[in-house]
Design goal:
By secondary structure, the chain is of the alpha/beta class. The protein is built from eleven helices and 15 strands.
């Protein structure tokens, strides 16, 4: 085995006939392998014979109707298969890294992010890569990405499925916001202590331990909501616009709802939105390009 592997992996490595040998074993016959390879059976047989001559061992014992691997053939087949898989992986990785995005790109996002954040990114993506098409599935349901053929998901909250890969997406500054009508009625809180007397709108994906901070190092906890909570950021903004309380929101969503910043010296970097895609050998060009675009690369 050591000699066989050294000839396969060593400096004098010769791959001629190896792919044919692997196909013969996988097809369980010379004729079947010849049909799959699109070459005469005699050519397949000759390539195996030359490979055995070069290695100095018999890999396959033939009879009129049957063939079976020798012990050396079994060991060599395992080594060849691993080597060809490694070569295929390397070629796929190079292709994924150099290929331009094209074709259908399917992604899903919750409704609170789809219109304000993801749709503008999709427009930029289509403009940058004219050979692509986009199917944006807007739903708060967590789709089975592999089963439903989805390339990329935008999700709020921590990743729980270990079969998926996640990349954190920082949309920008987040802080406290309220409708002008609410502030006219209840007043603008001047400090953290005054904030405690106000009604807040709860967003279910923000952990209780989350804090806003100021440039001088002060920390601000968001008061627990007393009446309204939701799992949708657009709903948080809509509740705030209706004057139901002060909301914790990303700036891009708050400004779209004509809200006013509250205690602007306190802010945080949003870190609860993720790009999620199936674990696979290589990330597709479409997925890589879309994430890079969103991250400003």
């Amino acid at each position: 085995m050591e000699t066989l592997c050294s000839q396969l992996y060593g400096a004098d490595m010769n791959l001629d006939g190896i792919d044919v040998f692997v196909r013969v074993v996988q097809a369980n016959g010379f004729a079947a392998a010849a049909r799959q390879l699109g070459m005469p059976t005699s050519t397949v047989s000759a390539k195996i014979s030359r490979l055995e001559e070069r290695l100095g061992v018999t890999l396959i014992q033939r009879s009129t109707r049957h063939m079976h691997l020798t012990a050396s053939g079994e060991a060599y087949f395992s080594a060849c298969l691993a080597a060809l898989n490694a070569l295929d992986a390397g070629e796929s990785q190079l292709a994924a890294g150099t290929a331009a995005p094209r074709g259908l790109f399917r992604l899903t996002a919750p409704s609170d992010l789809a219109s304000a954040v993801i749709a503008p990114l999709c427009a930029q993506f289509l403009a940058r890569y004219p050979e692509t098409r986009i199917d944006l599935i807007v739903t708060n349901r967590r789709l089975d990405l592999i089963g439903e053929g989805v390339d990329l998901a935008v999700r709020v909250g921590m990743l729980q499925d270990s079969s998926l890969i996640s990349r954190k997406y920082v949309m920008g500054d987040v802080g406290l916001w309220a409708a002008p009508a609410y502030l006219q009625k209840h007043g603008m809180p001047g400090d953290a202590e005054a904030l405690a007397a106000h009604e807040t709108i709860g967003f279910n994906f923000v952990p209780p331990s989350f804090r806003l901070t100021s440039a001088d190092g002060r920390s601000l906890a968001i008061p627990a909501p007393r009446r309204v909570t939701t799992d949708d950021m657009q709903a948080v903004a809509a509740f705030a616009a209706q004057g139901l309380g002060i909301a914790f929101l990303p700036e891009v969503i708050a400004r779209a709802s004509n809200l006013v910043r509250v205690l602007p010296e306190f802010s945080a970097v949003q870190d609860f939105v993720y790009f999620v895609y199936p674990a696979q050998r290589h990330v597709t060009a479409n997925v890589r390009a879309f994430i890079d675009l969103a991250l400003g690369k």
